[in-house]
Fold these 2 entries.
Entry 1:
Amino acid sequence: MVFLTLSCWIRNRGPDRYWKVQEVLSNARHFRGRKNRCYSLAVRAVRRAFVYATKARKIKRRNMRTLWISRIAAASREHGMKYPALMHNLVKSSVEVNRRVLSDLAITEPKSFLSLAKLARAGQQEGFGAALGDGKEPPGVFSRIVTLQ
Amino acid sequence: MTSRGTPSRFLQSVLQNGVGRYVCQMKRISLIFSKNGQSSLGAREFIEEGVVDFAQKNPGTVVYVSPQSCRIPKIVAEYLNGNVKEEAITSKTSQQIAELITKLTNQSGLDIIRIRKPIHTDSPSIQGQWHPFTNRPLSIGPIGPQKQQAN
């Protein structure tokens, strides 16, 4: 008698399960708990991590901007001005410095930031004078609105 | 894929290369190809035409040409900081191989991973970095030599 069906019962599984598993686990090695070792837990955690990473690219830009804004606000409050006033008056004085550079100046170049704050303060006072005063130009300043005659 | 999961580095040049004389960071380049094999055709053409000019133009780089019986022709570039970069040149034209080699020559050997900031300064602050006492007025006056109190 020859047993022929025995060889039909042997299954050939895939040869690279190890590498497919390592592909996922290598992204999970810095996680906490069993999700850095056990494949089923790691698969779910890695997928969430990638989703968060994708979403975070937009959020990073938002967070950086809020960080810059809070740093500029703190620096300008040291000089007695508030952030909205500072930005509005810088824009009015046509100083187009963005928030990233302003926050870097506030950290590494405090004197330059002080001079910018003073410029903004002067613009603010001028604005107050124009709004509350009599409509005359401040003394010693000739009008910026130059009309060709 | 995640910023924490993948390695990253800061922008730097190797030992301030370029401030003084520029030193080519590639120390050795080996062309491994086979003498008969269609995938090495571009490699063989490049060796016929362009290798000698390249070696003369870059006197600081050693060029090794090693014909072996191999399935895939390779370029192995070694850099002064010890990094080794292998590139397969299967079925590439001589022109493409030349461009690849110029690209490898212009690289420093630093890892090609995410660079955290596109800028680097050794002196970030000129006026003095901010500290909590920068904009505070002094609480005591200027400090001078103490007057000795007569008792």
Entry 2:
Amino acid sequence: MAGILDVPKPRINCSMLSQHINRAVCFVGRVEKVHPTGKTFSVSDGEGNNATVELNEPLEEELSGIVEVIGMVSNKGAIMATTYDVLREDKGTPFDLELYNEAVKLIHDFPQHYPFEVAASG
Amino acid sequence: MWNQGGYSETVMAGGYTQSPGGFASPSLSQGGEKKGRTRASQIVPCTVSQLMSASQADEAFRVGEVEVSQVTIVGIIRSTDKSMTNIQYKVDDMTGAPMDVKQWVDTEDPSVDNTVLPPGTYVKVSGNLRSFQNHRSVVAFSVRPLEDMNEITSHMLEVVQAHMVLSKPQTTSGAGGGMTSSSIPPMSRPTMGSMGGMGGSYAGGSGMANNGLSPNQNQVLCLIRSCPEPQGISIQDLKQRLSGISLAVIKQAVEFLSNEGHIFSTIDEDHYKSTDNDD
């Protein structure tokens, strides 16, 4: 697990999955359906597209709301999750997933101002 | 200049409370210097990758063109380590390996909250970038847990906006980066003469051209220069070609250019030729 946390994990949405196959990514989305086995669930992004998340261990509790999943993108475009966090929405303001999606598109439009890599420091 | 103005307005709306003095007046934050060079008296939203890649000259760090000293980052705590005098966090914002963040603990002051935040907490860190024996870290004066996760989104947007605006004005106009200094001399644009519509975006660009003429004056001069006819181009023709500029402004430009010796009248007061023509 330490390995994937120490590399850049570009924030992406569903339309960018195919460009990140076999790479580490960070995917934020709304939990849609949890498979009965608890080992996989679907998430939707701010554009309404769905992706599949696959876990190593089955979920131990009910998962809902907005999650941030870190994992590798498989050849089939699923996210093999290493870890995930629930973005809490209990303190008042709900998370605006559509706006987050716009921000994701923006940072990919301006990689010079939001780099997902560490250049050699001078 | 308008770049700095735009930045301070937007950042005020973004709710920076740390350094109000720096944002209230752009001249303060520039330290009185005229050009776009920024002094390190502002707090700049950054990514961990930017902080790790920043170049260092003496005590000053630079992310590209932007000098950074006080920074904010938003990320999730991956690990914590508390000692008697400080708390060390590793904060991950997905742009690279988690960043070391050190927060000093004030053991004497009971009002200061020294509770260690647990891993998995999303935080906004405000502090100073430091480098010690080639190891980069942030010494934080504030590590605040996020209550509204939309701050993750707003930080992403603020990072791009701040670095875009704080970069040298000649290279980025903040409005898409399409205007560069190389596009200013009108002679180099073959389409200038035929496209009156270009006037709008051009005039909104970087202000003064290299030859000391305003964008409007440059457009008028360029059209006059490009006219091959012996009697020159008329003011009516200029008005037709420069649909974005009013007749009064065109006449003002013509008068200025004529006074400066760039153009002269030919058959009447309404026709002008450029003094730089080869023929």
